[in-house]
Amino acid sequence: MGDLQSLRDFIKCLDQQSLPRILQICSGVYFQGSIYELSGSEVCLSTGDLVKIIGLELLSVSCEEIDTGTSFELPTEYSGHFRLVAEDLPYNTIEEIVGLCPVGVDACGSFTFMCKNELTVDNFTLPAGKQLTLLSVEVTKNGKRLARCQLVGQNMASAEILLPLSLRGEFYECQGDRGYSLQEIMSSFRLSCRRFCSINEKSVRKNVVKFPSSLEVDVQDVTEQSQDLVFITPLSMTEVASQPKASFPTMAEILDGPEGNQFFNCSWFQELQRGRRLVLHGCGTTTLILASTPQGRKGKQYFIISKGYGGRIRRRAREFGSVYELYLASSQSPGLKVSVTRHCEEVEEEGMPALSVGEQLEVLGMSLMDGLKDKSGAAQKVENLICKRTMEVDDDEEEDEEDDSEEISLPLFMPGHFVEKLSDNKKYKLTELLSSSLPLDIKVVTRDKELEKDPLMGLPALKLEETFTETTVLTSLPHKPDWCFELPVSWLQMSLCFTSDRLPWSSDESPELHVETVTEVTEKFYYEYHKLISKIEEPPPRPPKRKPSSSELPKRSPKPGSKSQNLKSTVTKQLDDLSLGLTKGKRAPAPPPPEDTPDQPPPVLPRKSMSITDSVSPQNTYVKSPMAVHKSATTDSDSEHDYESIEETIKNPHESLFY
User: Fold this and answer.
1) Could you give the CA distance from residue 568 to residue 570 in angstroms, rounded to a whole number?
2) What pTM value is reported for the model?
3) Sequence-distant contacts of 476-481: CB under 8 A, at least 24 apart
4) Dihedral, CA atoms, 134, 138, 140, 142, nearest 10 degrees?
5) Mean pLDDT score of the chain, rounded to an integer?
6) Which of 74, 84, 164, 647 could form a disulfide with 78 if both were Cys (CB 3.0 to 4.6 A apart)?
7) Which stretches make up the CABIT domain (predicted)?
8) d(CA 379, CA 27)
């Protein structure tokens, strides 16, 4: 039986996973009036009654101000947000951070920390004070747990490092800028145990409001004294983009800038500060291309590229690691041709043909073919990629060689190494490549001359992944009104207001605009974008289950008393009875001596004399050892002992054989 406690304290500590629970009414008073008023039905609870708790419904949240201790309640539909207050308590290991951080490690970028001392992991040294963001926990093949963290360096460049959970140091939580709703806090046990500060969101009325004249307020007419007063109308980015075309170009002032930099690694984002003036040239819909670089020393980089990018591009050959990847690429690019870059051995029972380096494959289509047979004897249907295989030949041998191509079928589960075969080396415009199916691997060979600095120039490779349309506002800064950048409306949470300031150019002539067509974005932007489009790719097919060969079958030991066990015992016994020229039991007698041999023993040969100089290594003439005489005497005695042992062994040859 549990301890006596109030209903509120019991509900506060109740774990919903433990429901249902049975309570007994002891005594006390009810909160918020009589129990009869609940749900309009008359209910009476008497002392000794038993109540079964089957569920909880959150009606309000009780909060307490840390400074004053004042308590108040918030409704569950409260729309405000709260920011975590960083604790001053240190963490001693990475494992403590993973176990005690306020949110789970599956929430990307949710917990940021720093170390007061310098850390060394393998050959990498992390300076003291660098901020790290916990991303996930990974387990290696040998069972070692590692924490994947993101390190943000200069110019917002990010890199990922793996830290062992046993790494020790003096770690402290950093103040984050992420806001949590009331529902998020109450649904997480770790968050509900932390302290928060309210994010003061300014509430400004944007529209005309009506109020009754019966309000009990005193007023005074100050119209004459307030001629210069301007009433502003805050506009969100969506509202700015919905303004008529006649409203542009115009000047605007930032009322509330975007909080934190979660999505952009570009220079213009740093200019979006509160109170900054902007020139708004217009708004419209822009076609953008999402691009990424391969994994390198600085990590992957991500870009959104406008359709008007003016650089010149060459296509790069794509690499494929399986037949399934070939199938996906061929479905977007019919007639795909590849070269085999690694040998592949034939597995006849799984229908996998042999492939050699240099063979050319042209994808023709898909087909269902019979594979391995299941237990019932029916053949399994396996998806195969039908390809035309030819050998790579030189140009001078091409005329002499006849067409020796053949059609082969490759199961989709078959691994392999292929590289795309390109037929041209042409320099393309970005608009020309957009007519092809994406993704495409490219390399920028000529920079966009309209840009002050082209961030795509010099990259070893770039993958154009997909295109999307975005509502943008064409913007520039007053001191450089002709250099423009596009603000994506759905990715910036900020408010503006139009002002009556004069445009930074004469009314007779408008400046020639140069648009920044490349914007570097963060990894968070990349993954948030894919969450929005909810693109789910099916996994590659698994190879069919094959019957194990006789060598792979587990060997069963025969039961005792069985026929096979008795046969084995008999054979083992016969083998044990065998010997190397010896009979079982006593040793065979020596053969009789010849008749003409006299009874006297054979003569003993004289022992070969050996001097000390013959048996001892030459003495070091450069260093006089005081133990030389002792060593010589010891060696002489040891030599005589060795010869006696040899003589004894010769006298007893049979015993020495068994020893």
Assistant:
1) 5
2) 0.52
3) 476/278, 476/279, 476/281, 476/513, 477/271, 477/277, 477/278, 477/279, 478/251, 478/277, 478/278, 478/279, 478/504, 479/504, 481/279, 481/505, 481/511
4) 100
5) 77
6) 74
7) 19-205, 248-476
8) 74
